[in-house]
Amino acid sequence: MGIVNIDDDLHDQLRKASTVSCRSINAQATFWIRIGMLAEMHPALSFNEIMQREMAAAGVTPGSLSSAAT
Question: Under 8 Å CB-to-CB from 35, ≥6 apart: which residues?
């Protein structure tokens, strides 16, 4: 693990986004870094396509929330 220095404005945006996403600041930064890395590795994929692949790889199935909520 290491320390990453980021711009104050980016850190402020990171803090705000982490609140909305119910993640810690570190978890939000990790998410953004991971998605950014995947986007660079697969430039033809949209954010939604990347997320669908990541969810499938994690074993999340479509519709699992709707059936759990009822």
Answer: 47, 50, 51
Contacts with 25 (C-beta within 8 Å, 6 or more apart), sequence order: 14, 15, 18
What pTM value is reported for the model?
0.77
Contact (Cβ atoms closer than 8 angstroms) between residue 16 and residue 27 = no
Residue with tokens 């997320």: 51
- The angle that helices 25-41 and 8-21 make with each other, rounded to 10 degrees, is 100
pLDDT digits (tens, 9 = 90+) for 15-69: 999 999 999 999 999 999 999 999 999 999 999 999 999 999 999 987 766 655 5
The rounded distance, in Å, linking the Cα atoms of 1 and 53 is 26
Give the three-state DSSP class for 32.
helix
